[in-house]
UniProtKB/TrEMBL annotation:
This is Nuclease. Residues 239-248 have a biased composition (Basic and acidic residues). Belongs to the DNA repair enzymes AP/ExoA family. Residues 5-249 form the Endonuclease/exonuclease/phosphatase domain. Residues 239-258 are annotated as: Disordered. Keywords: Hydrolase, Magnesium, Metal-binding. Its cofactor is Mg(2+). CDD domains: ExoIII-like_AP-endo.
């Protein structure tokens, strides 16, 4: 089986011991990271090499930033950043070929506060992502678009609809933009295999959210038809969220048949 994981690490330097621990424990074939929060020259590639992982990354000082790690392989970069807004300098998208797959790591804008310019940027970014996803779809390759989408797709993907009702993550416009991508032929792996919901990938640091299991699902792995045909399992490494100085996200993964 080929395990492809998505992990918003919330600062790769602050969480490096936890990240290395997770890689050593679970050994995913590919790990798509978000919010590495470091400039390119500060990325700790040598630490991953010790565990047998090749890496590419797209950094930014202090916030955002994405990376792709591959076990016993070197990802071959296909694209960094999305077309459509030349003035957009946020490091939020990186795409590569690795292990016979097209893989993208995605850190979609949060969009809060809404309404406002940040929410407008989120929706434009989602439209740009959809256009790139359509180009990948047209190549008819097994592909996985993995990342922190900052979208709660369904009511059963949050502990409380009422608590999240005014958040940008759950606005009708955010959900509609996400559904449009799925309607183009992409499969939400976790949503498909766990239709009843109740799967959380994020727990806020505030208000005892972790201790009370007040979480929601915003980390998604979307599969092209060629990858969806090979889908065998999904999971969330929830115990890693509960460890000391952990990210507020848990690693989320799919397994594909060879």
């Amino acid at each position: 089986m080929l395990r492809i994981a998505s992990y918003n690490i919330n600062g790769i330097k602050a969480r490096l011991p936890r990240l290395l621990e997770w890689l050593d424990d679970t050994r995913p074939a590919v790990a798509c990271l978000q919010e590495i929060k470091t400039q390119d020259e500060g990325f700790p590639a040598s630490e991953f090499e010790k565990l047998g992982y090749g890496a590419i990354w797209h950094g930014q000082k202090g916030f955002n930033g994405v990376a792709i790690l591959a076990h016993d392989a070197q990802p071959v970069e296909v694209r960094r950043g999305l077309e459509g807004e030349p003035e957009d300098e946020h490091s939020r998208y990186l795409e590569a070929d690795v292990h016979g797959l097209r893989v993208a790591t995605i850190y979609l804008p949060n969009g809060n506060p809404q309404p406002g310019p940040k929410f407008d940027y989120k929706l434009r970014w989602m439209d740009r992502l959809r256009k790139r996803a359509a180009q990948i779809m047209a190549e008819e390759v097994p592909a996985v678009l993995a990342g922190d989408y900052n979208v709660i797709p369904r009511d059963n993907d949050t502990y409380s609809v009422r608590a999240m009702a005014s958040d940008a993550l759950m606005q009708p416009e955010s959900r509609a933009a996400y559904r449009r991508i799925l309607a183009d032929g992409w499969t939400d792996a976790i949503g498909t295999l766990r239709p009843a919901g109740g799967v959380w990938t994020y727990w806020d640091y505030q208000a005892g959210a972790w201790q009370r299991d007040h979480g929601f699902r915003i980390d998604h792995l979307l599969l092209s038809p060629q990858a969806a045909d090979r889908l065998s399992a999904i999971g969330v490494d929830k115990d890693h969220r509960g460890r000391e100085k952990a990210s507020d996200h848990a690693p989320t993964w799919v397994e594909l048949k060879p």
